[in-house]
Amino acid sequence: MVGVLLHNARIPGSLLELELTESTITIDFEAARQTLTALSKLGVRFALRGVNMGFLLASCVPRLPIATLQLSCSPNALPSVDTTSILRAVISHGHRLGLRVTSVDIQFETQMTALRTAGCDGFQGTLLCEPLKKDEMEELLLASNSHLKKA
Q1: Chain centroid to CA 122: how far?
Q2: pTM for this structure?
Q3: Which CATH number do you get for residue 104?
């Protein structure tokens, strides 16, 4: 369905990054691997969010077309940004697997500083920008992709 939507809207797959959770992969790993591989051939990129740093990261991620590991800074997320040594280990492990490591849900400058110090590659959250409303997002997409206006 994603491939059809991209084709009909004439949008290159490389403009799309889908966020996945661990459960979407582990419920049926082989089906997930096939689907992700097919979509990656269209240029679609994938970010893994909320991942268990053990089994999945070590054994499954290297067999999937995952480009990004996302760390959450939400209050219930682990590891805490107060534990810089753990953050460094997690980020370093992601880098060793060839992943770009980004942080999401950043709300405070202290979080950003700790993550930057630990080697994080990218950041997003309300500290940097409030989420756009639907009409604002549509306007931004249309303005930056003139071929979408014809679709």
Answers
A1: 10
A2: 0.75
A3: 3.20.20.450
